Structures are given as structure tokens and as C-alpha cells.
Amino acid sequence: MDTGEMVPAAPTTFMDRLLLAQTTVDYDVARRGEEGLVERLLEDAATRVMLVNHGLVAVPKRSGADAPGALVCADDPAAPRPDAAAPTGPLALALLSAEAVREEARRPGCIAIYLGVDRTAEPKTPYIALDITRAAEGPAAPRSEARAHVDADLGRSDGSFAVRALRDFDWIELRSFAPCATPRDAGLATSAVSVAMWHAHQRFCPSCGAPVRPALAGWAQVCTGEADGRRLLFPRIEPAIITAIVDDRDRILLQHNTAWRPRFYSVSAGFVETGESLEHAVRREAEEETGVVLDTVSYLGSQPWPFPASLMLGFTAHAATTAIAVDHDEVSDARWFTRDELARAIERDGLELPGRASIARHLIEHWYGAQLG
Predict the structure, then answer these.
(1) Number of compact structural domains in the chain
(2) Burial class (CB in 10 A: 0-12, 13-18, 19+), 198
(3) In this predicted model, what pLDDT tens digit does every residue of 83-121 receive, in sequence order?
(4) Are 323 and 176 found together in one domain?
(5) Looking at the structure, do residues 286 and 216 belong to the same domain, yes or no?
(6) How many alpha carbons lie under 13 Å from residue 99 in its C-beta half-sphere?
(7) Residue 319: beta bridge partners?
(8) Of 183, 216, 236, which residue is a domain's last?
């Protein structure tokens, strides 16, 4: 098993700081269509396999204060989640040999996803994600929080691979894992969770309702309905903009949404509407939610956010007006902060910022010029 002793490199650019945008693995897209690719990789001694269950990834069993309660995000009715109970790392994926999972990967319900190959390793290392969600589900497994699934499944006594895996490893949410992982492991986990969650949520063809089966090494689905022409289906991505807005005094605008915890503040964000440009979405969201009108808008970087299927496109923008008029529907409060005011609000008033895995956190810290909290 890979113990993952590598230490993440210090980030140097904004994109380097986006934890879910990191990867050192070649996606090897050209091979996804090869017949029997996953089966051949499972016969390859160089292949390493990570496990996913209900959106959680397996990490090696830990001991003492680090096990396993410290690996669970605190309960939170809103997203993004807080970091209070997140591990402070480092953490590595539990990586199994192909031989260890070969039999399980062939069971109905397990979904194998070819994540690509690390060409910098010697020998070159292919990676597969095995989603055991359906194999781990009991006959009447509740469909609620991911952690609740794991806890419920641990109560089973059938001795299956899935149940043994739930006991032999700790299971952690991607938002807690990524801040403590190497770029390789963060990239593998992000791809695996994104694709696995899509398979979990789309089990039938959205056109005809027939069951679907995995295709293209797990990156697509085929409709099994003959009348639908065996339609090939791909994951849908929902573009969303997120913006650090500053004024002439170099203050940042942070807002509190009605669904969030009382002291949680973040930057402006929202989904892009059909037929809308990204820049228009940036200006529209800011004015709708806070009444602030923007002039200059500049793109900064992007990050996948598979909760459930977003691509977050990060911007900075300059405020042409500074008067705040929140909509009281989605946003209940918005404030301008200087750097000193923000630091005092965090330390003295308990103001909470987005989690370390989120692009929102890094947009704020990019403006601030240093890490916060």
C-alpha cells in the first residue's frame, strides 16, 4: 500500500493554491475507448486503485487523536463547510494493488474509473478509482449524508470486500482531504469523486428512463434502451462564477447568505444562466445580491467543485459603486472590509471564512496577501 509520504510543494501562483485544481497525472483520454481497458489494467501489477464510497475517499487507518472522528467535517447546513474538524495533515490516499480489488471490481454495482497514468513514476503507474457505493449499500440503505452511509454500512456483518474496506480504512470528504494532500492525490480524489457522484445520481437515461451502464472506462454512460439508440451520455458540468469585489480604497466586499451559519461570510457567487456570458453573470450576481455595480472584471482561475457538479470560475472585479442594498432573499448582509478590519473580525468577532479547499477562500487570501486563520 502506498503510504504517500510526499510533501506538497509550496504554492507559487493563484492556480497553484486551488487545491481541487491540482493534478500530476496524465488523464490519458485517448485510451478510454479501448475495449477491455479496465480489465487489462486490473491485470497490471503497476496499477494502483483508490476507493470511493458515497463521495468519501479511503485513507490509511490512523490512530490516537487523528482517528477517525478528526476526519469528519463538522455538521453544517450550508456549503461550503467549515474547517473546524478537518484534519491538519498530511494525508494520503489508501492505494491498493490491482490484485487486491480485481474480484470486487467485477461485481455488479461496482464502478471502475480509469483516472490516468503517472508518467513521472518508474514504472509508469496507472490509477483506477473503484466506487463501492452500490456494493456497500444494504437492501434499505438510507440516502442521506455520506458519513451516515458509512456508519450504517459498518453495522453490517456480511464480510464482503466493501464492508471490510469500510472497517480497514478511514473515510474522508474531499473538502477535508484536499488541503492535506499532495497535488497527485488531490487530483486523483477530485476526479474520482466527481465522476463517482455523477454515476450515483444518474442511474437512468434522462431521455427515455432506461437503465444506464458505465462506458469509456467510467467517464461516460450508455443507455441500455434499444429504442433510444444506445445513447452515449456524459457528465454535465454547471458553470458558476465567484468574484472578489474591491473598491477604490482596496476594501473587499463579503456577504452573508440567508442559508449560512450566522457568522459565515464569503464572496459573491452564482450560477451562469443559459445564454449568458461569464462577465455578465459576475456583474448581474453582484448587483442582484448587494446592489453594487461593477466596472472592470478580470478572470483569475478556475476550480472544479463536485458538490454536486460545478465548475467555479474565479474573477476579481472593481466596484463602480459602493452603496450596499442586499436583496434580503438570498443575501441578508454585506460589508466592506479593510485588511485590518477583516483580521479583527476573524479574531475578535468569530467571523468565519470558506474552507481551505474552496476557491472562495483563495480569492479572499489573494486579496489579503497572506493566509488567514
Answers:
(1) 3
(2) buried
(3) 545 556 688 999 999 999 999 998 888 999 999 999 988
(4) no
(5) no
(6) 3
(7) 294
(8) 236
